[in-house]
Amino acid sequence: NYLTLPVLFLMLSNHYPLAFGTEFNWVIASLVFIIGVLIRHYFNSVHARKGNPTWTWMAALVLFIVIIWLSTAPKVLTGEPKESASAQVYVASAHFPAVRDTVLGRCSMCHAAEPVYEGIYHAPKGVMLDTDADIANHAREIYLQAGRSHAMPPANVSQITDTERALLVAWFEGAGK
Ligand code: HEC
Fold it and tell me: Where exactly are the structural domains of the chain?
């Protein structure tokens, strides 16, 4: 039936976030559906001996290219900043030395290859925050977990101050400006 192919694709796409990790999910899902209909139309025509409508393959191909484009180009379309090369701007920030002191003092007793915090034996969730590169690469998570929210440190066990949280926010939001 008409649904088999699109449904198959939608199921597979769970495993390939590239196709669906964009804001154009619904456009992509609709295009996938139309491709399914086109392919189905092709086979129906061939089996009914009503000719060989190769235009359906061309149309499906064009739609497929549009899907690829939508799933790789969304950053351009939505004006989101590029993620690559960003780690560098966090280290280059004038706030970085103070941020590093804060993170080393308040986070890395747990978030290290060999945590020293009582009862913690591995870096929680694999998040290590004990080198410049680690801190820069986790800038966004640090900002969200400890700057904009009070999720980290848990129950504020390491007594991060509001001034330090504000520093993390200023660092992340100001980086690269
Ligand atoms: C007492 C140990 C401890 C300290 C100190 C600590 N964390 Fe954590 N952190 C944890 C634990 C435990 C988890 C896992 C929580 C969970 O499973 O939901 C975690 C998770 C995280 C995560 C991953 C969150 C996610 O859900 O993906 C980030 C990012 C993080 N911490 C950042 C920080 C930052 C930044 C600091 C310092 C301001 C900090 N943590 C201080 C124990 C700690």
Answer: 4-78, 86-174
